Amino acid sequence: MEKDLGDYRKSYEKGELLLEDVPENPMELFQKWFYEVDSFFAEDETNAMTLSTIGHDGFPKNRVVLLKKYTFEGFIFYTNYTSEKGKAIEANPNVCLSFFWHGAERQIIIKGKAEKIPANLSDGYFESRPRGSQLGALASNQSEIIFDRKELENKLSALEKAFEGKEISRPDTWGGYIVKPVELEFWQGRPNRLHDRIRYRIQDDFNWQIHRLSP
Questions:
Q1: Which of left, alpha, beta for 134 (phi over 0: left; psi -120 to 50: alpha)?
Q2: N or C: which end of the chain has fewer CB within 10 A?
Q3: Distance from C-alpha of 140 to C-alpha of 80, rounded to nearest angstrom
Q4: Each residue of 88-121: pLDDT tens digit?
Q5: 193, 197, 199, 201: which one is catalytic?
Q6: Is 212 a catalytic residue?
């Protein structure tokens, strides 16, 4: 049965974002928003973000990944380098990240370039992961076709026996990326669909140009 979504309505009234109040560096505002959402909106998985890449077929593809660290240089996540998204990044490092925190009625869209982080940093994070996650990284040839789930479970069981009592080293095909931003847009929901949108865009001198955008 078709369902008419035309009457779905929500009034956004939880905050405002004024141009005169934003810092010169967008990472300061990101840090502030991330902290506020993490502290006051427990229903949101704060570090869940959508990663968009352009695939070999020419189509964009979105998937949710987890932000594991952010610095003034960029945003770090981990994945399989030979996965569909890893291959897409290798061919075209221009990516987009987005966060949507429905509890706070906020969204951040980030354009940037993805590059692998140094191997020793990936090693350090891999060592900090639960043992099950380490084995999962070995068991899964991410994005490859498998016959059924049992195939994956059997491989995991075999790895558990093979590595019993042993340390698990990070596979070369798994590690981190940092997305270095060139543009960030902060969106705060407002009543009557007159939302606040503030865009930061990097300049040649590595300063940020700041504009308010019409909703």
A1: alpha
A2: N
A3: 9
A4: 999 999 999 999 999 999 999 999 999 999 999 9
A5: 193
A6: no
